[in-house]
Amino acid sequence: MSGPDPRCSNSDMFAIAVKVFAASLLGSRNGSLILGRLIGVDIRQEGRGNAGGPKALRTHGKFVALGVVLIEVLKAVAAAAWLPRLGAGSADALPWVQVACGAAAVIGHCYPIYFGFRGGKGMATLIGVYAVLSPGVLLVVVLTWLASMMLFGYVGIATMAGAAAAPVYTVLTGQGMNSPILLFSLAMALLIIYTHRSNLARLRSGTEHRMFRALLTRRH
Predict the structure, then answer these.
(1) Lower CB count within 10 Å: N or C terminus of the chain?
(2) Contact between 32 and 51 (Cβ < 8 Å)
């Protein structure tokens, strides 16, 4: 698949830029921080780690964590499925606008302008984008995450493995090197690994949480 039509008018390019910016604002609505405000806490100040679903689970339990994940997934679906289709636009450019809006939503989640650029680590939002872009990639990411959790018991390792599986899958299924889904999945895998750098540091020091393995296997 080729890139966006180089003959796009200035008005088309402006419209795309507005959509991408709107997607970043949508991504900046961090579920942990929104729900945290409702219950009177700032999740960023509790325990350690960023303001994401795993942190919400550790500090406030499964129902708050479920609400956080739901918000992150739904905002990503809106950013990748709804925003790119607003107004007129080239059908050829749509996949590129979708991945641009999806990437903006994930980055906005990690570095939300509403919350001092301190957000989550991006995986739940990325899952929502993959639900729109490629259910096949989504399935591979989820299965890789589950398998890694069962094998290693660390949510950080599972998350990075799941993100890294996406570009591998797109290559193995014959996507061209310039396809929007491959470029998107590669960029997002690198971003997810970067946002989990503190997890890697704790793994090296032996202080990373293993509680998620116990939740899945019921072993203590």
Answers:
(1) C
(2) yes
